User: What shape does this take?
Amino acid sequence: MTQIHAPEANVQTMDWMAAQIKMPYTLTPGQATGIFLAELAGRRLIGSRHGDEVLVPAQDFSGTTGEPASGFVEVAPVGTVQAFTTGAHGTLGIILIDGSTVPFVHQLLRIEPESLEVGTRVEAVWADEPTGGMLDLAGFAPLGSATTFEPKADPADLAAAFQKVDYTMTLDYQHAYGPYYGTLFDGVKSGRRIRGVKCSNCRRLLLPPRAQCDVCLAPTAEWVDVEPVGTVQASSVVHIEFIGQRLSPPYVYAEIVLDGTSTRLIHMIGDVDPTVAQSAAAPGARVRAVWSDRHTGSLADIDHFELVPAEADA
Ligand SMILES: [Zn+2]
Assistant: This one.
């Protein structure tokens, strides 16, 4: 059994933080799906012909035979539920559109779950404002009245296919800290206190704290408060912009060894002209943390490090 040398009993350890990965990109839908999406704005459902198959949404190639689309056809915005499942976010159905040969998955809306069954007839529900995406077709709802369908689109005169569609993939998750990072980040957040742990064998002071020494692999054994003062080990001027930056380039990034620790911390050095950083923030320069007014429980609560004049660092 691993014994965790817990921090002081009155310290509330931060367990996790909310985190997010966000990836904006553009999707090139291809001709068939591009036409399908473009026609949704006109509240028309377009399928593609592949021999005897009609696929809705339109596809460039059949998923079963690989046959390329030989043409496009407007289909009625009505269909039949072939299967469905209900979860926390609503009901999803597998819907076979009239005139198509392969069903597809979409939301079922305005559904009374007890009245829904395989074979329920449904009709398209359109978004109030088209945005150029699949949800311009908001979903399907039970057929309210006799829907008469008259194709309006001449397949030879379809809207120009979308060449690209803007997408953002977003992943929300919780980043679990565990007892070591949790203790460090709680101290930073609530008391502006930086703590590392000492290896039981080689006595290196590790920051961020961890269960085992990464040099001799012995368990760590003792929490130690670390002053927010240290020495630059290396520095660099960042000129390139990238997502997630807190400062606009150019700014100075540095590896900093806080006094007493055996590990390096990467942070920014503020209040230094990047053009003279090579000498002003050279290895050996003394720096001190400047706390921000943020209390997020991370090392970003340190706004930046500032240079400490040699004579003031006695
Ligand atoms: Zn060690």
